[in-house]
Design brief:
Layout: H1 9-36, E1 113-118, H2 125-135, E2 139-145, E3 155-158, H3 163-175, E4 178-181, E5 193-197
Parallel strand pairs: 1-2, 1-5, 3-4
Antiparallel strand pairs: 3-5
């Protein structure tokens, strides 16, 4: 027996319409329920899933750069030693005194040692001459007698090509004596200017 039995035709039509409206409303409600459930899709634990690296609430953490820059890896530049100026002596080296390099200045030759020998019968003549040379700034390291022959005049003997040559010539000029290369009898003697004093030497006399 139909639900519409006993109803008039107009009422039957209204009932069909109401049933149709209810069916449409049910369909629309089911579609809305299906579309709304996608936004709260549950993860493995049943809680809403979030993007990797994003904290709950959807706010990304803020990364603050370090306030102090990393230290520089550049090594400090070592000072470069300056080269000596041409013509100037290198520190730690003597300014003169090498054989074959006579001093440029008058005072530069007085570092050469001097030995004085008496070739006369005048007592202590060599000592007096040595004191004269010392008083002028020369270094006399030996005083004695020379009896291996006769020297004509007071002479400063030197080895050619060494600093003795410039020193002997300077000393000879200052005291008005001769300067000559060493002769065979003294050529192998110890380094230094050798002055052989004879009787004509005037003690204390110095040329201009």
């Amino acid at each position: 027996m139909s639900v519409f039995s006993g109803m008039s035709r107009p009422m039957k039509a209204a009932g069909v319409v109401l049933i149709g409206v209810a069916i449409v409303a049910a369909v629309i409600g089911g579609i809305s329920a299906l579309s709304g459930g996608g936004s709260n899709e549950a993860g493995p634990s049943g809680t809403p899933s979030t993007q990797p690296g994003t904290p709950p609430g959807g706010t990304s953490p803020t990364v603050t750069p370090p306030s102090t820059p990393p230290p520089s890896t550049t090594s400090p530049t070592s000072p470069t030693p300056s080269s000596p100026t041409p013509g100037q002596p290198t520190p730690g080296q003597p300014t003169s005194g090498q054989p074959g390099q006579p001093g440029d200045q008058q005072t530069g030759n007085k570092w050469v040692t001097v030995r004085v020998f008496n070739n006369s019968l005048i007592k202590d003549l060599a000592e007096r001459a040595a004191n004269d040379f010392r008083g002028d700034g020369w270094t006399v390291n030996e005083v004695g007698n020379y009896s291996q022959g006769t020297i004509p005049v007071t002479t400063a003997f030197y080895r050619p090509g060494t600093d003795e040559e410039a020193a002997a010539k300077q000393l000879a000029q200052e005291f008005q004596i001769k300067a000559e290369p060493r002769f065979p009898g003294i050529e192998s003697a110890s380094p230094g200017v050798i002055i052989i004093v004879t009787k004509e030497y005037e003690s204390g006399h110095k040329g201009s």
